[in-house]
Amino acid sequence: MAIEKVSARSIKKAAALIKAGGAVAFPTETVYGLGADGLNPEACARIFEIKGRPRFDPLILHECSAARARKLFSKVPASALRLMKKFWPGPLTLVLPKAAEVPDIVTSGLKTVAVRVPASSAARALIKAAGRPVAAPSANSFGRLSPTTAAHVKRQLGCGPDMILDGGKTAIGVESTIITFYGGRPVLLRPGGLPLEEIEKIAGPAAAIKNTGGAPPAPGCLKKHYAPRARLQIIEPGRRVKGGARAGYLAFSKKPAGEFRAVRVLSPRGDLREAAANLFGALHRLESSGVKTIYAERVPAHGLGRAIMDRLKRASAK
Ligand code: TXA
Ligand code: MG
Question: Whose CA is nearest to atom 15 of ligand 1?
Fold first, then answer.
């Protein structure tokens, strides 16, 4: 299995693999995805196998333009249309009733489908060259840390994918924000790279999942997810904790007092965007340092901080 730097040639090769039913890991602006032909059920089945992902957890379809993406839905409320116009391409996934052509394996049998148009030019060039929607979950093993570099993909998936396209470190670093609609109101299924505040400015105040009268939350948003191998414990910033050779520390902006085997600072200037971009890379580094416990500082829960806290909470779930 080859890791190839993004170029016109490698994108063409990756697109040919996808057309032939293969699985290719590729960069997006959020995290790396493991892509396959989204209209080919057998190709999609390979994604589940390579990731060890349960079949009840549906995939996101990626398109190269908003016009093409829209065709994967059978119904689009006006507020969803406004979001598409404003935020695609970008780190926003919309969940809406699916078009007939979307295979059941993509949606795990649900009547809705998740779709997004990535902002990454390499991703869009790949989808365009493949000439079909590309189904792609994050390119990690099921339940493990998401990949923000080609090396992260390689470490977890090894020779599973037919090819890894290397586009360097991803810019946003956390997965897309997932939004569905209930009675025309947006509902947040997963906080992510597009802050909820931005979405609410365009689509109005979000309804809470529990008030949706039975609309399913994202089935893949399991409580325990994004987990590093070490035990992760969320702490208040600056709180003194017992360090030592078996402990790692994930700080928001300032190095902790005390000795730790490994320390990562997400953003020395206390910027949530920078922190999100560094989150998974820092967790991968702490994990591979061999520590038993990772202390992770709470970050402010607004803007991208909401996505960071969501990932930390899930990584800390027992
Ligand atoms: O940024 C991202 O979204 C990345 C990149 C590769 O695009 N992809 C990603 O995919 O994070 P994945 O499979 O790791 O997460 C997709 C989430 C899952 O939690 C899944 O349950 C949810 O989307 N999902 C997919 N289809 C759905 C549907 N019809 N209804 C509700 N949730 C859905
Ligand atoms: Mg994932």
Answer: 137
